[in-house]
């Protein structure tokens, strides 16, 4: 140790007169100077033991022979629970009695030896050992893997036995979790058991990168074991434990008017369908949803036509007379999400229970088709999460007798009951439209609108030969800020040098007026096609003569690209399934947003939810005020992102998004617009 390494914390400190020792191995020993031949007078020595964070130090004196005085005033050893001389005192010793073993509360220990007499004893010897795990007898605290948040060391075997006050359970909540991944957690793992011993019932064996669900024991004991093998090491885990009480088991039901739901460390009140919590969070009041027995009516999301509030759960149960069917027709529809409907959604079911036949789960902006129940009742459930809110929906329901139940209503294909006495409609199957006689069906036009982020498309009649005199179009649109990629799996179209007969054309945008990406024919599989924006248009044409097998292609989405800012606001999303799923791992995307000469660019972050880290080293978005990364950096952001708009000083902004392979979040939504240059720019490092 050098003098500059000492932090005296404002106290007088004569470095040269003290012998300093720093011990950092997991085991070791030390002794007083001159042992066993006697220590010198007026000696002052300090040993600082530092082991891996998350471990404790066990110190045992093996011999002791110091001058004995009242209160150990002259020659003594002091042991402190920490890394400096004012840390909590574990003990002060002198004489010839070997003390009991001492254990630190964390990973550091301070041992100080002083002699001030002329009496010479042999001195002392001591050994220490770093241990992980142990008995924990308190109502709350934190447990970490050794060396957390840095990688844990190999070949560790740590056991914790947690005991809280009698009459309570143990709650365990994970703040971070990253342990070597394996299907059966055979290498590195954390094992949690419901009780005080290794033979207690297993709650779970955990590994990988997903944080385990919260754990609750059935008694006041919890047993935990962490094991690492000799190879791959990761950051490990951090978990809080605390005494847990089931407030809902009390006679007053936790003070809840209707339902009490126990949670770790607390509880919450809940309400029956058709009710919601009042401001006191305990009593219930009439809310969205409820039981509806009218033949027709209207339902809408809370607050319609304004944005619905977060964290809403509305259930409508519609009941009609026997032999009636209920039809639901949406007038307007705008929910967060696109296809997967992970965050906000509405579910339609035939029946009244949550496990009745599901007609569909809907979100996004596409208005669902009319939905008709199979029975005389229908369940509609709306849920919103705690972030993005939209306008919601308004829908009308109608009850009507089912005229299609007899002879299929005389329809060739499908008969759909419609609203009104004696009313029904004939509906044609896929690829057909209704004939003028309203009963028979005829072949429909071959036009397709594609909004999904990925999928397949085929030539007509695939995998058989396509028909003659056929024209089909596909209008593909993906998430703003992303590009359409088209890859061909099979391809066989009548060959011609200029593809003048049968052919497939691809256009870089909306419609056949956009720039052409290629006109394709023959039997050689074409190279993949990528649009420059979020739209691609395909047109397939066959003439009257030769027919072939046609093509099968896969469309997918690529992030990044060049975007043009205009005076009307445009959107950019972190990933193609924004609103449906969290962003994927191992992502590196780059967008260049440009504007007209003389205009700058304004970026507004309407949603920003990216893995948080102090230096934004894992997942982040970087902004550069120019065309490349050599330009002035406007900032690197993670967590909840920028709190205000960001303006460029020039006519371009480079946006980079990176994600690692562990935690993923909801992502971001940027609105960008060209604007006249600002005098005061928001530029952050």
TrEMBL record:
Pfam families: CUB (PF00431), FXa_inhibition (PF14670). Keywords: Calcium, Developmental protein, Disulfide bond, EGF-like domain, Glycoprotein, Hydrolase, Metal-binding, Metalloprotease, Protease, Repeat, Signal, Zinc. PROSITE patterns: ASX_HYDROXYL (PS00010), CUB (PS01180), EGF_2 (PS01186), EGF_3 (PS50026), EGF_CA (PS01187). Residues 19-131, 132-244, 288-400, 446-558, 559-675 form the CUB domain. Residues 244-285 form the EGF-like domain. InterPro entries: BMP_1/tolloid-like (IPR015446), CUB_dom (IPR000859), EGF (IPR000742), EGF-like_Ca-bd_dom (IPR001881), EGF-type_Asp/Asn_hydroxyl_site (IPR000152), EGF_Ca-bd_CS (IPR018097), Sperma_CUB_dom_sf (IPR035914). It comes from the Eukaryota. One of its GO terms (molecular function) is metalloendopeptidase activity. GO terms for cellular component: extracellular space. One of its GO terms (biological process) is proteolysis. This is Metalloendopeptidase. It comes from Oncorhynchus tshawytscha (Chinook salmon).
């Amino acid at each position: 140790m050098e003098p500059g390494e000492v932090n005296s914390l404002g106290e007088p400190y004569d470095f040269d007169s003290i012998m300093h020792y720093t011990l950092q191995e997991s085991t070791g020993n030390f002794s007083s100077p001159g042992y066993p031949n006697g220590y010198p007078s007026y000696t002052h020595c300090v040993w600082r033991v530092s082991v891996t964070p998350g471990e404790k130090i066990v110190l045992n004196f093996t011999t002791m022979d110091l001058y004995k005085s009242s209160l150990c005033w002259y020659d003594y050893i002091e042991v402190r629970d920490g890394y400096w001389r004012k840390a909590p005192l574990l003990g002060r010793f002198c004489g010839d009695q070997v003390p009991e073993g001492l254990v630190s509360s964390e990973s550091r220990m301070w041992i100080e030896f002083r002699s001030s007499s002329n009496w010479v004893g042999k001195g002392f010897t001591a050994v220490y050992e770093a241990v992980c795990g142990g008995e924990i007898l308190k109502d709350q605290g934190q447990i970490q893997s050794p060396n957390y948040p840095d990688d844990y060391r190999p070949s560790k075997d740590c056991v914790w036995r947690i005991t809280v006050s009698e009459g309570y359970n143990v709650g365990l909540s994970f703040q971070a979790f990253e342990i070597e991944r394996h299907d059966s957690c055979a290498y590195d793992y954390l094992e949690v058991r419901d009780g005080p011993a290794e033979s207690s019932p297993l709650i779970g064996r955990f590994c990988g990168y997903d944080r385990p669900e919260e754990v609750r024991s059935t008694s006041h004991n919890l047993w935990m074991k962490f094991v690492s093998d000799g190879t791959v090491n990761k950051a490990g885990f951090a978990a809080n434990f605390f005494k847990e009480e089931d407030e809902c088991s009390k006679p007053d039901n936790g003070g809840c008017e209707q339902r009490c739901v126990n949670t770790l460390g607390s509880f919450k009140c809940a309400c029956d369908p058709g009710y919601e919590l009042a401001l006191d969070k305990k009593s219930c009041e009439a809310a969205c949803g409820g039981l509806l027995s009218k033949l027709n009516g209207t339902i809408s999301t809370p607050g319609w036509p304004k944005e619905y509030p977060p964290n809403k759960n509305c259930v409508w149960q519609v009941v009609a007379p026997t032999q009636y069917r209920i039809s639901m027709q949406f007038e307007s529809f705008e929910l967060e999400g696109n296809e997967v409907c992970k965050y906000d959604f509405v579910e339609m079911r035939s029946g009244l229970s949550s496990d009745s036949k599901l007609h569909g789960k809907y979100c996004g902006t596409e208005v669902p088709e009319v939905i008709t129940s199979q029975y005389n009742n229908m369940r509609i459930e709306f849920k919103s999460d705690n972030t993005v809110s939209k306008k919601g929906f308004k829908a009308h329901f109608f009850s009507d007798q089912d005229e299609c139940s007899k002879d299929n209503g005389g329809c060739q294909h499908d008969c759909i009951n419609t609203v009104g006495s004696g009313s029904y409609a004939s509906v044609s199957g896929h690829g057909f439209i209704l004939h003028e006689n309203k009963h028979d069906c005829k072949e429909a036009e071959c036009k397709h609108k594609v909004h999904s982020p990925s999928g397949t498309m085929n030539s007509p009649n695939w995998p058989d030969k396509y028909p003659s005199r056929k024209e089909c179009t596909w209008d593909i649109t993906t998430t703003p800020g992303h590009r359409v990629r088209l890859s061909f799996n099979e391809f066989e179209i009548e060959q011609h040098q200029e593809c003048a007969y049968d052919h497939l054309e691809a256009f870089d945008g909306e419609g056949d007026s956009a720039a052409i990406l290629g006109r394709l024919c023959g039997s050689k599989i074409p190279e993949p096609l990528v649009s420059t924006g979020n739209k691609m248009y395909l047109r397939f044409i066959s003439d009257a003569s030769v027919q072939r097998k046609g093509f099968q292609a896969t469309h997918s989405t690529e992030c990044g690209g060049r975007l043009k800012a205009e005076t009307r606001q445009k959107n950019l999303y972190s990933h193609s399934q924004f609103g449906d799923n969290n962003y994927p791992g191992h992502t590196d995307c780059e967008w260049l947003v440009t504007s007209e000469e003389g205009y700058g660019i304004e970026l507004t972050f309407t949603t920003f939810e990216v893995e948080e880290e102090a230096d934004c080293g894992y997942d982040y978005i970087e902004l550069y005020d120019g065309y490349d990364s050599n330009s002035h950096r406007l900032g690197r952001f993670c967590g909840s992102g920028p709190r205000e708009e960001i303006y460029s000083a020039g006519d371009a902004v480079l946006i980079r998004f990176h994600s690692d392979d562990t935690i993923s979040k909801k992502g971001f939504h940027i609105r960008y617009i060209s604007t006249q240059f600002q005098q005061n720019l928001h530029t952050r490092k």
